[in-house]
Amino acid sequence: MNKRLFATILMGAVTLSGMAQVSKTLSPYSMYGLGVLADQSQGFNRGMGGLSMGIRGGSIVNMLNPASYSAVDSLTMIFDMGVSGQITSFKEGGKKINRKSADFDYAVALFRVMPKMGVSVGVVPYSNVGYSFTSTETTPNSTLASIMTYSGTGGFSQAYLGVGYEVVKGFSVGANFSYFWGNYEKSLGIAALKESHLNVMLKAYETKISSYKLDFGAQGQFALNKDNVLTVGATFGVGHKLGADASMAVLNTESETSLTDTATVTLSNAFELPMSFGIGAALVHKNSLTVGVDYSYEHWGNLSFPYSNDLTNRYEISSSALLDRHKVTVGADWIPEPNSMVRRSFFKSIHYKVGASYATPYYNIRGGEKGPREFALSAGFAIPIINSWNNRSLLNISAQWVNSSTPNFIKENSFRINIGLTFNERWFAKWKVD
Predict the structure, then answer these.
(1) Residue 281: left (phi > 0), alpha (psi -120 to 50), or beta?
(2) What does residue 368 show for φ and ψ, rounded to 5 degrees?
(3) What's the CA gap between 247 and 184, in Å, rounded?
(4) What is d(CA 95, CA 133) in angstroms, rounded to the nearest whole number?
(5) Nearest to 119 by CA among 175, 164, 56
(6) Distance between CA atoms of 269 and 242, rounded to whole angstroms?
(7) Interacting residues of 77 by C-beta distance below 8 A, sequence separation 6+
(8) pTM exceeds 0.85
């Protein structure tokens, strides 16, 4: 039965990968690096800012720390999937515009295969690319101008199979083995007026990545007293080259001579995934209040990445385009009466969540400036779904405000609504008929 179940879930995850390939972004900052990084949180922790390192429980799928999979009980089958919508405000130089977007986010599942071991499968986004804008640059002390049009689409995802195992009571380890794939297409058009003639340059960038990703986790639980349990967690991601090429095609046209030049440059093995690690802790008080903090680090600095000067045909591997990324997250979850009868005390059985996070940029932008730092606030709640045969499934609803900004460049403010459904079913319970 477990084999049939695993095959069914795996096929479902592959099918959903087409839907969850990437969620769209409209940020001009997604033109840098591999795009805007996804937080990869699920419905249960989005209201907590994505808190994950020390979070474990038998009713959630915490794919950000695979050691947590061992907490699932033998009767449970969990499906979790989510969607989101957002409104983003872009502001620069006194001008402001708003844009809307909505997408399918993730699909994950978790079940137990043997005592002390849980298995999870799913599809989650890794990064998103999506932008389209135009800028005008004027030569100092001159009326000559260049109109530059930027556009790009694409992104990267991972489909994973994860295992978590409780080695000894209170200590678990786990791993996610992921298929990492995706692509982007970026273009730059430059129309430059020089004296009495017009020069047009078109540059097209492409890459397609198909590789793997490995992430490991550990969690230790410590009973401080009868009311308080502390869980400490840590994660480690393996950095490696992705074996993917990057190409740039250039088309130059001069109106004065009507001459057209074309060139194509291909860079071999141009991309890498960073080594990463994280550490965090969560304290649970009387199974009612959970508070925690996470810190994560991604070693993007000095990694290989393709770089191009906008105004030339120069295209090369650079080790100075990216920066090390740091992120701090704090969050809390409160359920007033965790053991109350849901039907008689509905509001006391709701989980109320808050969280905040701060992240530094992982790339440089034009002029050598650092990219935008990101500050986010979130709040949400998890509502039990009640019917005649199930009171363990949850509807997760959360709201996020995210600010991304860097001096002298575009400032972004996004308001997101996230909706997730966690189906927690007793698939493996034995029914008795009198």
Answers:
(1) beta
(2) 80, 5
(3) 11
(4) 14
(5) 164
(6) 7
(7) 5, 109, 110, 111, 424, 425, 426, 427, 428
(8) yes
Q: C-alpha distances in angstroms, 1 versus 8, 73, 74, 111, 393?
A: 11, 17, 13, 12, 23
3-state secondary structure of 143: coil
Residue-by-residue pLDDT tens, the chain, 434 positions: 444 444 444 444 444 444 444 345 688 999 999 999 998 999 999 999 999 999 999 889 999 999 999 999 877 789 999 999 999 999 887 788 888 888 888 999 999 999 999 999 999 999 999 998 888 776 555 556 778 899 999 999 999 999 999 999 999 999 999 999 999 999 999 887 766 677 888 999 999 999 999 999 999 999 999 999 999 999 999 999 999 999 999 988 876 666 677 889 999 999 999 999 999 999 999 999 999 999 999 999 989 899 888 777 789 998 888 999 999 999 999 999 887 654 567 788 899 999 999 999 999 987 678 899 999 999 999 998 875 555 678 899 999 999 998 888 889 999 999 999 988 866 555 545 55
For residues 184 and 187, what is the distance between their CA atoms, to the nearest angstrom? Answer: 10
Which residue has 């030569």 as its token pair?
139
Asked if 79 and 44 touch (Cβ cutoff 8 Å), the reply is no
For 11, the enclosing helix (H) or strand (E) is: helix 2-19
Identify which of 128, 77, 98, 106 has the alpha carbon closest to the alpha carbon of residue 13: 106
Task: Give the number of other CB atoms < 10 A from CB of residue 115.
Answer: 9
Q: Cβ(334)–Cβ(319) under 8 Å?
A: no
CA-to-CA distance for 199 and 302, rounded, in angstroms? 35
Point out which residues pair with 107 in neighbouring strands.
Answer: 81, 123
**For the chain, what is the radius of gyration of the CA atoms?**
24
Taking alpha carbons only, the member of 257, 135, 134, 261 closest to residue 196 is 257
In whole angstroms, give the CA distance from residue 308 to residue 313.
7
